[in-house]
Amino acid sequence: MANVNNGPAPRPRFNFMWFWAMVAIGIVLYAMFSDSDSQPIKGDWQMVEELVEGGSVERIEVLDNHKMSVYLNEEHVDSLLKDSRFKDMPRAGVQIQFTSHGDPSLFSEDLKAAEAVAKQNNPEQKDVKVVYGFSEKAWYDYIFDFLPWILIIVVWFIIMRSMSRGAGGGGNGLMNVGKARAQMSDKNNKDRVTFKDVAGLEEAKVEIMEIVDFLKHADKYKALGAKIPRGALLAGPPGTGKTLLAKAVAGEANVPFLSISGSDFVEMFVGVGASRVRDLFEQAKKVAPCIVFIDEIDAIGRARGKNSGFSGNDERENTLNQLLTEMDGFQTNAGVIVLAATNRVDILDKALMRAGRFDRQIEVGLPDVKERQAIFDVHLKKLKLDEKLDREFLAKQTPGFAGADIANVCNEAALIAARNDHKVVMQQDFLAAIDRIVGGLERRNMPMSPEERRSTAIHEVGHATVMWRLKNCDPVLKVTIIPRGRSLGATWYLPEERANHNVEHFRHKMAGLLGGRIAEQELMGITSTGAISDLERTSKTAYAMVAYYGMSPKVGNISYYDSTGQRDMFTKPFSEETARLIDEEVRRIVDEVVELTRKIINDERENIERIADVLLEKETIFSEDIEAVLGKSAQQIAKEEAETKSAEAKEQEGEDAPEPEIKYVLEPDVKSPETEDNEE
């Protein structure tokens, strides 16, 4: 496609600094290497005195009363060149140079004495001609004399020019170190983002719409005495679209948008961060009403006073104090709304979170099924797709994926389709992309012995069998023994998006994790290292049940989870006796789960062997293959029973009206990282 420009490309400006640099280098090279082949040798008066007594000197030029240039007789040159002292001497011109540091009159007396000796040896010897004069400097000698001053002037000129650029609002000048490096999007920008460009995030859109409406219709709110919100904090996992939502707010309100990262305030110089905060709000006041967006605000908004013993004057704290002052201090920032984004709300300073600064906190969580389908629709517009592609199916296959992850899936699917020479991107390409992102790259050439393959097959089928028989486990999709990433095999399942969990849910999930280890022990009599990830997740889940969720009768309804992140990592909120009790309860829970898992494995021993044989043959089997051996899964049976009971209840009550659709599912206020690890 041709490149279309609005006008001719600007001609590059010639930098004269390069010209003067080349001139200086040329001068130095000329002075160093000019006439290098005819350089006279360096000597002293003893050497010249010997030559005068031998009658070899024709004349001597004395410059400035101390610089001596010696010219020799032509008939003596050949014989002198044989001497090692004179082998590098030129045949003509100035052949010897020396410097006399004594009285010029003494030089004349010494020269006459040497001439007398020469006449004694040869009465016909002529006197040496002596010419006195004063030397004239070459033009480059003056440059060498003033070269240090020239360098000082050039350096001063460069520094002052750089400082002037900085003072004029340039990008990288020395005086610009205290300027905020905010990127500004004007309200007249044709490429501005609106809510139509943001798929999903419906709840966040509704909550943030008040800010947009205030910017559009400020008079309506001012007439009622309402004040504009000072700021809103967008909190959520990485890749959920926090930055995109902030851009959409500015585009929807049709106001200027100043964006900057929290790390841009951090500098090695003292006071730079606070200066940049002041400059940022000064820029915002000039174009108000506007929106200031600070991405990754946790870089400067961490809670103060944690490491006060190590740092008496923390530059980051000074920057935070200035931000607090600008957002709600004595100064009035009318029409300036601050939006910030972070995925670490727990570590932010409480003063930053209070009303009057960030008046509201908007959760930008992971999208649900419908929102994921909408996000797929946005990213699939640029791809050449198969007509049979089921977008709802793709949304169901990607639970827990953020918007950035879905974009990565679409791009990876296109790359896989191109590698396989497909004319369009098909559904199998998307499934391969999901497997690639979640599990890693296939390693089909990895050497494995038959015993290792058998052990891996038994391990993965053990996972699948236990999960198939327990209703609170996630539905199994497929089982493979093709190595991916660091794993020798994998059991793929579809995580259900639950908002709440009970004891039975956790027990069944742990049983599914331990199914592989127990299957290896019961069917093959071995204990391998392949279950390290399963054991880690099981242990974390058991500790979360006891110490966080209060699911242990002995420990009681007590939670030691710190949602604020303020607790010192070196101290425990419980005694040593309580720690021992927690360990005992964790061991009891894991042992009970192991017994449950071992019973299922022993009951399904023959079926596990049959499924493992099929898996060794095909390398990858799906839920249909497992259902052919084990029958319907416990999840499917429970779903059918629930549907039957619901239909019977409707018949008894005589209600034919459909049940109201639950549009939104509330997430729990406190969610530990251990739970998230086990909700894959």
CATH level-4 homologous superfamily of the largest domain: Peptidase M41
Main sheet? 6 strands, mixed
Taking strands numbered 1, 2, ... along the chain, how are they ordered across the largest sheet? 6-8-9-10-7-11
Mean pLDDT, all residues: 79
Q: What is the total number of structural domains?
A: 4
* Rg (CA only): 43 Å
The CATH C-level name of the largest domain is Mainly Alpha
**Broad structural category:** alpha/beta
Tally of DSSP helical segments: 23
CATH topology heading of the largest domain: Methane Monooxygenase Hydroxylase, Chain G, domain 1
Helix content: 40-55%
**Shape by Cα distribution:** elongated
How does CATH name the architecture of the largest domain?
A: Up-down Bundle
Oligomer: single chain
Number of E-type strands:
14
Poorly predicted regions: 1-10, 166-175, 307-313, 660-680
Topology:
Elements: H1 16-33, E1 41-42, H2 45-53, E2 57-63, E3 67-72, H3 74-81, E4 96-99, H4 104-121, E5 129-133, H5 139-167, E6 183-185, H6 202-216, H7 218-223, E7 231-235, H8 242-253, E8 257-261, H9 272-286, E9 290-295, H10 315-327, E10 336-342, H11 350-353, E11 360-363, H12 369-379, H13 391-396, H14 403-419, H15 427-439, H16 450-469, E12 476-480, E13 490-493, H17 503-524, H18 532-548, H19 576-603, H20 605-618, E14 620-622, H21 623-630, H22 634-653, H23 673-677
Helix pairs in contact: 2-4, 6-8, 9-10, 12-14, 14-15, 16-17, 16-20, 17-18, 17-19, 18-19
